[in-house]
Amino acid sequence: MPTEVIAESWSDSLKCYINSLSRPKRVFIILNPFGGKRSARRIFHSVVRPFLSQLTSCTLCKVVNGLLQRDDWDTAIKMPLGIIPAGTGNGIAKSLLDVAGEMYSIQNATFAVIRGHKRPLDVATVLQGETRFFSILMLTWGLVADIDIESEKYRWMGRTRIDFYFILRVMKLRKYNGHLEFVPAPGHDFYGEPKKESTSHRRTIDTSSRVDGDSKVKQTGYQCPSTSFKDSEWRSLEGPFIAISLVNVPWVGEDSMPAPKAEFSDGFLDLALIKDCPKSALVSISMKIRDGTHVNSPYVIYLKVKAFKLFPGN
Q1: Do residues 202 and 229 touch, judged by C-beta distance below 8 A?
Q2: Same domain, 189 and 277
Q3: Region labeled Disordered — which residues (predicted)?
């Protein structure tokens, strides 16, 4: 049999196999020109584009929020979304590659999109005042939020800006007074104090009201699930705190794993809380967060929750 005939036969067989994997035939590309060092366009053209003619790279959370605001959200949200890490944190990409046993790199993320590997991901509904939005990575309050927001002026430093500003914030460490309430996941009800029966804490999270039930939220697209916590056992914790994070996946950055037991679609958020602690302990926690062992610190509370309320203090 001629060599070219054999080659064509192998090519046809390979195409049939690849097509059987239900991988995406066409993908829509979204570049975030302002993420990280603003190098998304350069990375796409120099690293990603050589692998394929079209690719998805996006600020995933914004895209998900946009899809869920559509009238056809229930159809739109089923569209697979691929992500190529070109920003500062890249937690979703890192988590996806890690669970697949792949090293974190732009090339491996690109190949994952090409292969069409898919994984369902929980979406958390967040209500703040009369605003509703959706979270897929992390919600944070305290030290981590301050570092993220206040270090924006050093964005030219890239990922280094986070470490740099962490040092500044530790030198002038703030303590955050507040009160939090949560519905623990099964087996996680050993933290905090039980809340007594109270109308302010026994509300139903429905599609037309806030958690505390005293304000209307405009209904557009997807509304939060009509989950009732009327019969749930709420528990509470009092500050001061250093940082509070609600995390949906294990990694929030390529070298930061605040929620080592987080799963993509278990229906829970992982609550990682750093209590008031000495600066030396905080530095130790920040070093151990790289491999998730920080959760063993006596200054860290780590559990899974179904619902969560935060009441900042003065």
Answers
A1: yes
A2: yes
A3: 193-218
| Residue 94: both structure tokens together | 């890192």
Q: What is the pLDDT of residue 189?
A: 84
Mark which of 97, 115, 133 sits at the end of a domain.
Answer: 115
Cβ-count burial of 131 within 10 angstroms (0-12 exposed, 13-18 middle, 19+ buried)?
exposed
What are the C-alpha distances in Å from 310 to residues 25, 79, 146, 236, 313? 44, 33, 16, 10, 10
The residue ranking higher by pLDDT, 142 or 58, is 142
Contacts of 170 (CB under 8 A, 6+ apart): 279, 282, 283
CA neighbor of 193 nearest in space, from 240, 235, 241? 235
User: Bigger pLDDT: 29 or 296?
Assistant: 296
Q: Which residue has the tokens 């949200």?
A: 77
CB 76 within 8 Å of CB 70: yes
Mean pLDDT, residues 172-193 taken together: 90
CATH number at residue 43: 3.40.50.10330
pLDDT at 276: 94
Query: Do you find a cis peptide bond into 85, omega within 30 degrees of 0?
Result: no
pLDDT at 54: 35
Shared domain for 59 and 151, answered yes or no, is no
Into how many domains does the chain fold? 2
Residue 208 is predicted with a pLDDT of 42
- Statement to judge: residues 30 and 166 lie in one domain: no
